Amino acid sequence: MPDMSDPLIGAHMSIAGGLYKAFARGEETGCRAMQIFTKNASRWLAKPLDAAAASAFRQAWDSSGIGPVIAHDSYLINLAAPGDDLWLKSIAAFLDEMERCSLLGIPYLVMHPGSHVGSGEQAGLRRVCEAFRNIFTDGPADVTVLIENTAGQGNSLGSGFDHLAAIMDGVPRGRFGICFDTCHAYAAGYDLGSAEGYESTFAEFDRLIGVDAIRAFHVNDCKKALGCRVDRHEHIGQGSIGEGCFRRLMQDLRFVAVPKLLETPKGEGVEMDLRNLAMLRRLTGQG
Predict the structure, then answer these.
(1) How many structural domains does the chain have?
(2) Which of 53, 77, 203, 247 makes the best surface tag, with the fewest CB within 10 Å?
(3) Is 1 inside a domain boundary?
(4) Mean pLDDT of 87-98
(5) pTM, rounded to two decimals
(6) CATH number, domain at 61?
(7) What is the rounded CA–CA span in Å between residue 141 and residue 73?
(8) pLDDT, tens digit, for every residue of 183-215?
(9) How far apart are CA 214 and CA 173, in angstroms?
């Protein structure tokens, strides 16, 4: 179990100029864990990864002080899409993301369940399950998919833990885990801001899925109110969730070994990441 005085915390880091450059940026901010995109998240296509780029990434990782690294998929992908054109394009793009992770040695790929685009929640969830049955047949076996809970904006799936459970149950041979986003959970109506709400939220999660399935956290405060269904991240302790949630999370022995990654606003330079990571370290209560 990691030392609570040196927690597995970090942030999403830019890959501008080369994937391997994310490690220098992560070390500059004191990351012990890190999240990246493996390509431009706003484009469908990317130059294929060559052996030299993968080797440079792995070497930079080996020589860094950063432990766990996870990847996040493109925002364009929608495995719940009712139309075949976007759905098939999304499956192909997701498989490519998995292959990139495999080449880089990244074991986890975070994804949002997607939008049902008006077809209805159950139809959307069936569509996601069908997509994953194809993906796990063709995709690399050394990459685990982390389904991320969402704020529930518009027609987005994944705001309720039952949605996450339905996807995992619908693909029994799937290689799944969960990436738990604090802002998204709060925006979806899970009251992480109070001690009672924190306990009841994770009790509900444990009942439906099991807390052992949580392989990563996105630690983000929320700009908006409880149950707002709006995905707007805020700096730790400065939003409507408040400091108490993050203190409880940083001291929760169930999650000591689970990486906790910021997706808070960056601002100029590394100052805000440094502040937020310092806050998380302070909230461990270890010094």
Answers:
(1) 1
(2) 203
(3) no
(4) 98
(5) 0.97
(6) 3.20.20.150
(7) 17
(8) 999 999 999 999 999 999 999 999 999 999 999
(9) 18
